[in-house]
Amino acid sequence: MNIFTKPLTYRQFLKYLLPSILTMVFLSFYTTIDGFFVSRYADSDALAGINIVIPITCLVFGTSVMLATGAGAIIGEHMGRNEQKKANEIFSMISLVLLVFSIVFSVVGILFLKPIATLLGASERLMPHVLPYAFVVFAGTIPMAFKLFFEYLVRTDGKPEIGLKMSIVGLILNVILDYIFVGVFRLGTFGAALGTVFSIGTSAVIGLVYFLKHSNIRFCKAKMDFRILWKSCSNGSSEMLTELSTGITTLLFNLIILQKFGEDGVAAVTIIMYIYYFFIAFYMGIAVATAPVVSYNLGANNKAKIKETLKYSFITIGMTAIMIMAILFVGGEFIIGLFTNNDHVFALTVNALLYFSPVFLFIGVNVFLSGYFTALGDGFTSAVISTLRSLLFVIVFIFALPPLVGVNGVWMTMPLAEICTIVISLFLYNKKGKKYIAD
Q: Is 304 helix (H, G, I), strand (E, B) or coil?
């Protein structure tokens, strides 16, 4: 745990961040890789079909992240107090809860597959692509949930490089399997889903072996403590809301764009969301890497370390925002071209990115501060930030803007939501967050 307590130079801080950032970037690649291969070896309808299923994966990932971040903050505090036995008990209980959820979710999803696909907005034209992808996703709920769960908790254990190894192995395997299943055997979205679930399952096994044999946090006999469970869920609720709202936003985008531009419009939404998932991963990496440092030092009452972490994080967020905007300005059309050779889809997406890209100037601060309050155990404030930026403001703008400025208002929705939220986020930070670093 020395890395959590000793002072760092900014260069050392970046070195500490790198594994977590790369882990989150690689995680964003799983669905993106599916989209790349089906767009190359199938068609734009298959690409749109994958996008219809995104709310399902968001629910799985959201539950996993909620439990991992919420419980991780509590586990980190106990470890900071040298209460290892209690940390192990909480870890084991939360793991059991996630397993039960995954089994139930998988069974219900498979039994009601087509009604769920219809509810998510799948048209008859897209249904042949949606159903096989959704079936495999539901069947693979357990490895999907635990892959993410273990990746978050290895950071709490002070080993972010293990999460990076999990992601690298899964990513390489996903590329290979997608090429075999989609490129060679031409199994379409079914093959893409198989490749993703098998590769995610391999990553989950690596995480399981680590926690069974090598970690400081260990499995033990689970003791149900509903107070701790509730605290974990409420504390991690902002991360859950972020994932859920991503699914809700995607659903709303799909429904509105489907009416305006048909299935080609949904394909454009898919590409925009791939770009969004990739670049937000940099900010998520900063947030998840610093959260255990904050939690540990909150328990150890080390304000100087929390202050150092905040200073370096804000500097990194600003530099990242500039980098992302430069990449999109220079290479945005090239990135879009990787996912489609359909001229209509390409033109729609280029136009969409013009209005959508400013989101990356503001989203980093909001994502980080939400994670910061979660790490402090202030789940309510964290949830307020997440709910505003990724749900409430999005819903307001997505219905208000198109009638006022036309269909481009859809693409302006998320940037405006982040702008409005950052004002509130900084107010909450000044009012509540700074007291943890005050002398």
A: helix
Terminal-to-terminal C-alpha distance of the chain? 24
252-270 pLDDT, tens digit each: 888 888 888 888 898 899 8
- Contact status, residue 107 vs residue 99, Cβ threshold 8 Å: no
User: Tokens 């972020």 appear where?
Assistant: 242
Per-residue pLDDT tens over the stretch 108-137: 999 999 999 999 988 899 999 999 999 999
Find the DSSP H helices in 179-301: 188-213, 226-235, 237-299
Q: What tokens were used for 375?
A: 């790490």
pLDDT in tens, 140-185: 999 999 999 999 899 889 898 899 899 899 999 999 999 999 999 9
* Identity of the amino acid at 48: A
Q: What is the pTM of this model?
A: 0.84
Q: Are 217 and 90 in contact (CB under 8 A)?
A: no
| Residue 384 token pair | 């307020």
Judge whether 224 and 100 are in contact, CB under 8 Å.
no
Q: Are 87 and 78 in contact (CB under 8 A)?
A: yes
Query: Under a CB-based contact definition with an 8 Å cutoff, are residues 62 and 149 in contact?
Result: no
236 contacts: CB under 8 Å, gap ≥ 6: 65, 66, 67, 68, 69, 70, 71, 73, 374, 379
Q: What is the pLDDT of residue 439?
A: 65
Question: How many Å apart are CA 413 and CA 348, to the nearest integer?
Answer: 16
d(CA 328, CA 330): 6
- Quickly state the pLDDT bin for 300 (edges 50, 70, 90): confident
Task: Provide the pLDDT for residue 246.
Answer: 76
Q: Comparing C-alpha atoms, which of 95, 370, 380 is closest to residue 235?
A: 380
Burial of 326 (0-12, 13-18, 19+ CB in 10 A): exposed
Q: Name the CA radius of gyration of the chain, rounded.
A: 21
Q: Is 317 helix (H, G, I), strand (E, B) or coil?
A: helix
Q: Which residues of 284-321 are buried (b: 16+ CB within 10 A; e: fewer)?
A: bbbbbbbbbbbbbbbbbebeebbbbbbebbeebbeebb
Residue type, 176: I
Q: How far apart are CA 291 and CA 75, in angstroms?
A: 12
Contact 228, 63 (CB under 8 A): no
CA 97 to chain centre: 20
